[in-house]
User: Which sequence fits this backbone?
């Protein structure tokens, strides 16, 4: 244990001090939450009394906890009963997981509103980790924000936690929380206080997350809400008594007046016949439900001497790295291998390790230290409002669990799965997904995850139908329940009838036959019945994919997403390395076909580790694509230089993403011309832009004279036109590129381009949908750049239609009122329900 040191706390607000015993609330006055001070505030911004990490900030913004590097936890609670204001009157300026400096502004509050609508404005600052302190001010009088008010004796709290006597682990059945605002500070304190009366190690669980049941902050950080299903587990001599007492306490509201929640059976009884989510990987399957429940791991907070705990952590990290290397070496595809490589990089992340080592030095166990540092970092990722980073938090959870199990000596049990399994789970980790036995597992459905998560990418890579964003209710399904997983529709049908099963079988057979036929004709040209030739090219992100695309009949690459070439790299690739990559791709395509290299499209949902950026409130509306590259022109210049080096090897095209203004194109062209001159090139490659911002589509007539081609990025064009986040799991069905507004922008773009003799492609996921083929052709699009596996299917769809008919249907559907109407009209145009299995783009 480290020698005790003093940590000075500053006043978080200006105001009048009041003795804690005077606070009109028995939980605070009785110091059940912790000891500290109370201020009647005259300022209205709560500031950090110490430096550390925000270990919890309540969603309602009325309470926040900071943990210092040495583990001292200080809770600030603004007003009494302010949880009932549900966030009204509070503005959070920091997020959980964020590091803050002493004095930094944390929460702004509207003192007048709170004084009028809550019981009191009295604000508490409490040392909830239990260290003793010396007060530097009296219990009454005036304090100024930032003034030193307490000296806390660091490292003096650990001795109160004797190691539990080993015993059986006991777990309660699920309890639906009756508290109107979940376990906020006061009920959480009552629970933690009651838990401390037992010697057993106690945990409170919500879904995959767990909290030390004796830690008020950990319980608050679970961010529970009314009706949430939680469980208590305990291990030690008095585990059984602890679980019984704490279960009762939870059902009774932990000291709060509550009304009984709906029993679990009632919720289950309301289970509809079809549960809906979002397609993560296309396809369908019939099978029986098997639920994966992650075993809760019991983690002791305090450990042996720091050198012993440090050694335990290092050993676990080495073993985890070896296991990941093995998974990488034996991965069945590149997608899997890349994910395990990214996991290995997380293992070596210096900031994770620094945080864990600091906690071990402060007397914590290796398991506790590692878990705290990975949980805090994952929470920070999730709080940044960036879909991709939030999904990387799932990777961090995965790596975190892997190391934690190794520290605790918990051995992974191989899942014993029956044939025809449809897995259901709150969330699958990328490791679990990559390890699924696809001979037995036919598909899966999860509550968490998004269509762009690594889990979804892996599912697509191994052809497993999958749905994410399912309702929590799904976890109430019994193992063995017969279900039909229709990922194309995002539906899980319970107890399917004979007719649905027959339809599915017929559909599978039809798909199989059609796929074989499409493959057999893949190398033939894509010409409509009336003789219009359409370029069907590929969207790629690597040389391997390019080779695969050319084998499947692509007439070149319509979109090389260059930002994906070096994803996860901490350092920018050298010029030679970039030249080697682009040249290999160019050679694979050859001189007879187009290679369209899109310049780095970093930002938004695609952070690139070696291009650090400030965090943004709205990353999709921030420094993305060409905007970022023009802010850092050296980045663009170096990329141009490397791309130009392969101009002799193929029909080279360069494309700029996210162009909004003509000035951006002019500036980029200037840099390109300078670089081409330095290299002594006689001809410039073709230069085009993506049309993915409505402004660019609306100004297409102004832009067209200055480009060689347009390629429409319907993914972004749709999200910006409809103002719907492209990765939002709840908006996935509405954020549809078939919306007539998007179709009108496409028509406008094509008209402007053709008036100036320029060609137009579509490289968004819409081009990979069979259903969209007659529509896009009818709107006049010249090239479809599609997901690699779908090249044969899209070429075949082109061969099935007449351009003249396509023009008529395109004109008609552009006047309909919704995306759903457009889809329906197109399905009728096909004369039959179109198989939606080609909906997703990898
Ligand atoms: C698009 O926005 O449609 C597109 C092709 O670009 P990305 O999906 O890479 O943003
Ligand atoms: Mg885009």
Assistant:
């Amino acid at each position: 244990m480290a020698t005790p040191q003093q940590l000075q706390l500053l006043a978080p607000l200006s105001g009048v001090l009041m003795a804690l015993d005077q606070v009109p609330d028995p939980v605070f006055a009785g110091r059940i939450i912790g000891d500290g001070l109370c201020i009647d505030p005259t300022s209205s911004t709560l500031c950090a009394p110490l430096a550390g990490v925000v270990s919890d900030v309540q969603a309602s913004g009325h309470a926040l906890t900071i943990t210092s590097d040495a583990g001292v936890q200080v809770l600030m609670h603004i007003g009494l009963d302010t949880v009932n204001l549900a966030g009204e009157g509070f503005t959070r300026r920091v997020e959980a997981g964020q590091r803050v400096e002493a004095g930094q502004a944390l929460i702004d509050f509207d003192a007048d509103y709170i004084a009028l609508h809550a019981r009191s404005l009295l604000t508490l600052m409490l040392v909830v980790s239990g260290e003793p302190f010396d007060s530097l001010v009296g219990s009454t009088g005036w304090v100024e924000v930032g003034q030193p008010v307490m000296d806390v004796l660091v490292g003096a709290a650990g001795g109160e936690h004797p190691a539990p006597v080993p015993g059986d682990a006991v777990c309660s059945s699920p309890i639906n929380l009756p508290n109107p605002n979940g376990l906020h500070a006061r009920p959480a304190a009552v629970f933690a206080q009651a838990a401390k009366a037992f010697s057993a190690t106690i945990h409170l669980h919500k879904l995959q997350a767990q909290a030390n049941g004796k830690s008020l902050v950990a319980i608050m950080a679970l961010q529970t809400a009314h009706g949430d299903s939680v469980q208590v587990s305990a291990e030690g001599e008095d585990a059984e008594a602890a679980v019984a007492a704490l279960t009762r306490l939870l059902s009774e509201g932990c000291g709060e007046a509550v009304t009984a929640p709906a029993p679990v059976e009632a919720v289950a009884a309301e289970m509809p016949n079809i549960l809906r989510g979002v397609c993560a990987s296309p396809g369908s399957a019939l099978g029986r439900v098997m639920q994966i429940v992650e075993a809760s791991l019991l983690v002791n907070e305090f450990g042996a001497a720091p050198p012993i705990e440090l050694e335990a952590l290092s050993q676990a990290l080495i073993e985890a790295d070896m296991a990941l290397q093995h998974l990488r070496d034996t991965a069945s595809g590149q997608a899997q291998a890349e994910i395990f490589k990214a996991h290995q990089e997380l293992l070596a992340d210096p900031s994770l390790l620094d945080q864990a080592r600091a906690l071990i030095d402060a007397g914590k166990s290796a398991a506790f230290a590692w878990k705290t540092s990975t949980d805090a970092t994952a929470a920070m990722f999730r709080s940044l409002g960036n879909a991709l980073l939030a999904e990387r938090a799932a990777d961090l959870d995965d790596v975190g669990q892997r190391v934690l199990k190794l520290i605790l000596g918990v051995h992974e049990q191989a899942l014993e799965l029956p044939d025809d399994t449809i897995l259901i789970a709150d969330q699958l980790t990328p490791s679990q997904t990559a390890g699924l036995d696809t001979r037995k597992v036919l598909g899966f459905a999860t509550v968490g995850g998004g269509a762009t998560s690594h889990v979804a990418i892996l599912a697509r890579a191994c052809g497993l139908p999958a749905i994410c964003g399912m309702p929590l209710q799904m976890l109430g399904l019994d193992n063995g329940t017969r279900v039909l997983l229709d990922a194309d529709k995002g539906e899980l049908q319970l107890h399917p009838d004979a007719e649905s099963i027959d339809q599915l079988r017929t559909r599978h057979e039809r798909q199989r036959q059609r796929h074989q036929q499409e493959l057999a004709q893949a190398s033939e040209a894509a010409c409509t019945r009336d003789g219009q030739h359409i370029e069907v090219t590929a969207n790629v992100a690597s040389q391997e994919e390019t080779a695969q695309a050319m084998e499947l009949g692509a007439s070149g690459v319509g979109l090389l997403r260059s930002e994906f070439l070096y994803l996860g790299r901490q350092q920018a690739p050298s010029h030679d390395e970039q030249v080697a990559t682009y040249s290999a791709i160019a050679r694979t395509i050859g001189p007879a076909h187009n290679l369209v290299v899109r310049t780095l499209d970093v930002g938004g949902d695609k952070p690139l580790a070696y291009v650090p950026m400030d965090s943004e409130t709205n990353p999709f509306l921030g420094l993305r694509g060409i905007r970022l590259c023009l802010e850092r022109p050296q980045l663009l210049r170096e990329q141009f230089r490397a791309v130009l080096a392969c101009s002799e090897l193929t029909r080279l095209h360069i494309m700029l993403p996210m162009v909004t203004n003509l000035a951006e194109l002019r500036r980029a062209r200037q840099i390109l011309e300078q670089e081409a001159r330095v290299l002594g090139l006689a001809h410039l490659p073709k230069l085009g832009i993506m049309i993915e911002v409505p402004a660019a589509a609306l100004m297409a007539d102004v832009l067209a004279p200055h480009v060689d081609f347009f390629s429409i990025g319907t993914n972004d064009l749709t999200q910006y036109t409809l103002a719907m986040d492209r990765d939002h799991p709840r908006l996935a069905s509405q954020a549809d590129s078939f919306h007539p507004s998007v179709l009108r922008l496409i028509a406008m773009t094509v008209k402007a381009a053709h008036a100036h003799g320029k060609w137009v492609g579509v490289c968004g996921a819409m081009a990979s949908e069979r259903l969209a083929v007659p529509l896009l052709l009818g709107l006049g699009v010249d090239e479809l750049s599609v997901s690699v596996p779908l090249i044969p299917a899209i070429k075949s769809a082109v061969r099935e239609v007449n351009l003249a008919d396509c023009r008529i249907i395109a004109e008609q559907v552009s006047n309909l009122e919704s995306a759903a109407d457009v889809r329906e009209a197109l399905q009728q145009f096909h004369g039959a329900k179109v198989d939606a299995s080609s909906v997703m783009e990898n």
Observations:
- The chain has 27 helices and 35 strands.
- The longest strand covers residues 284-292.
- Residues 261-269, 832-842 have pLDDT under 50 and may be disordered.
- Residues 559, 561, 601, 692, 713-716, 763-764 surround phosphoenolpyruvate (ligand 1) (CB under 6 Å).
